[in-house]
Design brief:
7 helices, Fusion Protein Consisting Of Minor Coat Protein, Glycine Rich Linker, Tola, And A His Tag, Chain: A, Domain 2, five-stranded antiparallel beta sheet, 9 strands
Length: about 250
């Protein structure tokens, strides 16, 4: 793993880390060589047989020149929603033309779809150093600190409140677009939702992540709209933060 430095704005700590895949030769042994392992399954080949090489220093320079835009994604929203905080980790697959072919929000507990979408759009529009030998992988983690604290909601409490709304949220699967070519999108059951409940019980903000595949924009936009229309138990003067995996089994299912 190659670390790409660190910079600390006023309410946000943003650190970049770069993972550049490399094709590695197999070490020679004096012993009788072992039989070659069987080829991976076709599904695995789509994600594991694509390792290329990227220039770490050049990638760092490109990301550094765009850090102000990434910072703005957060600040534009946190000026209104001062309780937003959390960790976001985006994985980008860079092609031999220097373009991001796929971006995965593999981790996020920020709870702000508006910020996450802006980060995806910004990183997706950057020209990177071309990868050599296949797709190169960049993992870019960011940490954001809130101006106003929130109180975490327990997992059981979150499930108790949101299982009742699960069917409404899962109906967003109907918005999924049909993949083209080698496109892959996360199933809605693989999505984790993070959000905040404001005084009065209104869901003030939500965000989404999925560890293996990109999110379908139409599905996440639908989830954002439906989740923010929910009215949950009043947290009585506090901002409460919850995490809820949409694949979690609801009571009675």
């Amino acid at each position: 793993m190659l670390r790409l430095g660190k910079w600390m704005p006023l309410q946000m700590a943003l650190c970049g880390a770069l993972l550049c895949g490399a094709l590695l030769g197999t070490a020679q042994s004096k012993k009788k060589p072992k039989p070659a392992p069987p080829p991976p399954a076709a599904e695995e080949m789509a994600t594991e047989g694509i390792a290329g090489q990227l220039d770490a220093a050049a990638c760092l320079a490109v990301l550094e020149t765009n850090k102000a835009q990434l910072k703005k994604c957060y600040e534009d929203v946190s000026s209104r929603l001062r309780f937003l905080s959390g960790h976001v980790e985006l994985k980008m697959f860079i092609g031999t033309d220097g373009k991001a072919k796929r971006i995965i929000t593999q981790k996020s507990n920020l709870g702000a779809y508006e910020v996450e979408h802006c980060l995806l759009t910004t990183l997706g529009g950057i020209s990177y150093p071309p990868a050599k030998g296949g797709l190169g992988e960049i993992t870019y983690p960011m940490d954001f600190a809130a101006m106003v604290p929130s109180t975490p909601m327990g997992r059981e409490q979150a499930s108790e409140q949101l299982d009742k709304e699960k069917k409404k949220l899962l109906s967003c699967a109907a918005k999924a677009k049909k993949p083209k070519g080698n496109e892959r999108f996360a199933a809605i059951e693989a999505v984790k939702m993070t959000g905040y409940v404001a005084p009065g019980g209104q869901v003030a903000s939500v965000g989404f992540s999925s560890p293996k595949d990109p999110l379908d924009e139409a599905v996440t936009a639908c989830l954002d709209s439906k989740a923010r229309s929910l009215k949950l138990p009043d947290p009585l003067g506090k901002i409460v933060k919850f995490e809820y995996p949409l694949g979690a089994a609801a009571d009675g299912e």
